Amino acid sequence: MTPPSTAALLSLAGAAWLCLAAVATWLGLSRTIRARRVEADARAVAGLLEAAPTVPMLIYPDGRIEASPRAAAWLGLPEAPRALSDLLDGGFDRETVDHLEGVLIASLDTGKRFTEYVALPGSMRVVCFAGGPYSAPGVSDRAVLIWLTDVSGSSEQIDRLSAETRRLSAALDGLSTLIEAAPFPMWYRGPDLHLALVNSAFVRAVEAENAAEVVRRGMELIETDSEGTAQSVARSTLAHGHISTRTAPAIITGERRMMRVVDVPVGSIGVAGFAMDVQELEDARADLVRFVRAQRDMLDRLSAGVAQFGPDQGLVFYNRYFMRLFDLDPDWLSDRPEFDRILERMREAQRAPEIRDFPSWRSERRGWFHAPEPVEETWQLPGGTHLRVVGQPLPDGGLLLIFEDRTEHLQLASARDTLLRVRAATFENLFEAIGVFAADGRLHLWNNRFREIWGLEEAALVQHPRVDMLVQALAPKLQDPSRAGMIRELVRTATIDRQQRSGRIALNDGRHFEFAAVPLPDGNALFTLLDITASRGIEEALRERNDALEQANSLKNAFVSSMSYELRVPLTSIAGFAEMLAAGYAGDLPAPAREYVDAILSAVTRLSALMGDALDLSQSEAGALPLEMETVNVGDLVREASRSIADPANAAGLTVAIDVTSGDETVLGDKRRLRQVMDHLLRNSVAYTTAGGRILVRSRVAGRFAEIVVSDNGRGIPDHKTTRIFDRLSRESTGEGEPAGRRGGGVGLPLSRQLVEAHGGTIRMESEIGRGTSVFVLLPLGREAEAA
Which PROSITE patterns match (predicted)? Predict the structure, then answer.
């Protein structure tokens, strides 16, 4: 029997063994599971390596290679290489193999990784050898792990990208150079919208030292404009992602200039911009605006209609004459009607030509917008108006139309042609000889009379000879050949000195001519010859007759004066004896004898007055009539003369009225002679006014003259006789039924005119048949006469 302690020990040992067996079993199961897991992982890694786009390869320092069979296909070998020398058998050249060996040794020595690209021989494939030192756990040998990657496609892309990179780099360098050399400011703003880069032009514009100073100080080219600050505009440009363009003033090198500023968003990395000086453009635009305004003001004042159409064929401008010419409403024109509508409105107003096919005609005129050169034509309107129409195509595709009213011009041209024909006919049929010499002395025009007088041939004249040659041909035809040079001098004086001269010349055939050289407005000279041979004879006869008449007039005046004095003696004797008979010195006379004596006394008195008037008239015409000048009151003169004629007028059944408004105005003259004038005028009124009539004598002041008017309501005198009634011894009849012995005016009225004119005055008569006669006498007032 086993003791309890032994059993207990055995039980403990068994339990311990059982525990160790359980632990060993658990450890075995765990290792089996781990091994299976590692095996699964190894198979997975092997699968991954087989499916990977790269192939691993271990190369040891002695040149041995451990590689997957796939490496043979990648390297173009029949089997996987076992040493570097196998690459030479596969067609790799020695240089490439040595280079790879050197790279491997350097990697083992330095521990650096490497990447080499090797082109496979005989193909376009490129394999990338990338790797570095490798040591496996528990393995003492060093090796280099290389991963083979087929980069044939990537190589082409890399080459292309490299070339593109080089091209872009060169372009960037060129662009940078261009930006730096640009004559206008350029800049770049970073994401914070602060200046990051500027070019030299920007530096010069803000007068800074260099670009770094500009960036550091944030010197803006344009601080603020109508759209805000430069940064706010850039922020808006970046936010909206579109290019911003504006015009703003800037101070460039101390001068205010207008700049065209452009901000360009550059993705999300910032904003680039540039500014161009457009001051000259703005000045040019302002000049253009002023020029267009001045041109339109000028066109608005033209006497021709002007209309301008834009590229859209809409009316953009018209002047006032165009509106009046075609009777168009200005409100309608302000709506910029199209070309076709204006033509239609012209047709409706009958201010367009009458065309049967109006649409075709309008279409042809519309083609003027694209005409290669200006078009000109004439429009005849229904009312007889003729328009000259010029269509000028404009560079912008528009059209400028000019309408010139040629109606008056055509009428004037027609009238001018008619006048030219009339002038030519008149020129050829004038009695005068006419020649027109040009400013160079050549005969320009002549008529038939000119050629006939000088006996010149037409063939010689059509050569337009100079005046020097004409003088040589004309000299033998003159009575005094030396005077031929006068013709040349006359032409020179008229053409060069612009002076007119005239005179007379005689030909050797006895004819006499009156010549004249007249300068013409066009610089030519008109030379005329008038045949005065007959008038010269008549002039001589008239001169002789005039001398005879002057002598006869002198003898007449002397006879009248002599007879006046000679007749006074017997007339005085007749008057004395008649007065004695009337006084009864020869005894009492019977009634018939007394009537005869009274008639003799009346006739003697009238005859004495007539002889005195005739003597005064003769002396006045001879300028020998004495005048005793004194101050004469006009009112008193009129009153005295009117009172003296009152009795004879009343006896004839007439009424005498006086109207004196001159007051105390006086004239300087001979009172007796002035009274003589009044007596003659009043006696004529009494003699030629029928019974029951009225005689009015009035005086007034008319400016610087005293006016005396004697008027009656008698029979009157015809107008054509009033101008001759004051002629000396005029025998003009004043009308039917005038008193016997009063035919004609006698010497009273002519003497009155002589006396009034001797006092510096005037006398005139106004008369109307059946209404009466008025005689107006104007005498200078006393102060005016003294001044004269």
Answer: HIS_KIN
End-to-end alpha carbon distance in the chain: 208
Cβ within 8 Å of residue 276, ≥6 positions away: 184, 259, 260, 262
CATH T-level fold of 284-411: Beta-Lactamase (3.30.450)
Are 169 and 253 in contact by the 8 Å Cβ rule? The answer is no
pLDDT band at 148 (very low <50, low <70, confident <90, very high): confident
- Structure tokens, 82: 């076992």
Tell me the whole-structure pTM to 2 decimals: 0.36
User: Around Cβ 57, how many Cβ atoms within 10 Å?
Assistant: 23
Q: Is the pLDDT of residue 158 over 70?
A: no
Contact yes or no for 379/350 (Cβ under 8 A): no
List helix spans (H) across 531-654.
533-583, 591-622, 634-651
Instruction: Sort 368 into a burial class: Cβ within 10 Å, 0-12 / 13-18 / 19+.
Output: buried
User: What is the pLDDT confidence band of residue 733, given thresholds at 50, 70 and 90?
Assistant: very low
At 550 the three-state DSSP class reads helix
Other C-beta atoms lying within 10 Å of the C-beta of residue 402: 21
Query: In terms of Cα–Cα distance, which of 394, 376, 407, 387 is closest to 305?
Result: 387
Query: For the residues 116-136, what does the mean pLDDT come to?
Result: 78
Q: Cβ contacts of residue 347 below 8 Å, gap of 6+?
A: 358
* Helix, strand, coil percent content, the chain, rounded in steps of 5: 50, 25, 25
Token reading at 606: 């009238």
Residues ≥6 apart with Cβ < 8 Å to 476: 508
Please check the confidence at residue 740 and state whether its pLDDT lies above 50: no
Q: For domain 48-150, is the CATH number 1.10.10.10? A: no
User: Could you identify the residue written with the tokens 């006032």?
Assistant: 320
Q: Which residues contact 270 (CB under 8 A, 6 or more apart)?
A: 188, 189, 190, 191, 193, 196, 238
Please give the Cα distance from 137 to 117 (Å, whole number).
Answer: 30
pLDDT band at 309 (very low <50, low <70, confident <90, very high): very high
Separation of CA 554 from chain center? 74
Query: Can you give the residue ranges of every domain in the chain?
Result: 48-150, 182-277, 284-411, 430-531, 540-625, 626-787
How many residues are given for the chain? 788
Consecutive H or E run containing 712:
strand 705-712
In tens, the pLDDT along 242-268 reads 888 888 888 887 778 888 889 888 877
Q: Report whether 247 contacts 281 (CB < 8 A).
A: no
Distance CA(550)–CA(553), nearest Å, equals 5
Cα 449 to Cα 432, 433, 457, 512, 586: the distances in Å are: 7, 5, 12, 15, 87
Q: What is the third-level CATH fold of 430-531?
A: Beta-Lactamase (3.30.450)
Residue 504 to residues 109, 352, 541: CA-CA distances in angstroms? Answer: 142, 62, 19
Q: Which residues have CB under 8 Å from 240's CB, separation 6+?
A: 265
